[in-house]
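ARCHIVE CARD
Drawer: 12
Card no.: 0347
Subject: one protein chain, sequence and derived structure
Cross-reference: see card 0346
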Amino acid sequence: MTELERQLLNALESLEGGYRVQHSAWESAYSDLRLMFEATSTENRALRESVGSLSKQVLHLSAQVERLSQKLKP
């Protein structure tokens, strides 16, 4: 093996090592993002249910206020 071939092989091995490190970092970041997405989706689902419940309460209270205001009119 010539000196040039050794240098090229070393450069290739160095690039491969860098790729492996970067690939591992990307996999870790992807996993973290997936977990964050799942947690956010769960939280959003719970918030939508709460908003729906609160909206029903507001409508009910609004109807009660309307009925009471009609009763108070002379």
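Annotation on reverse: The chain has a mean pLDDT of 97. The radius of gyration is 31 Å.
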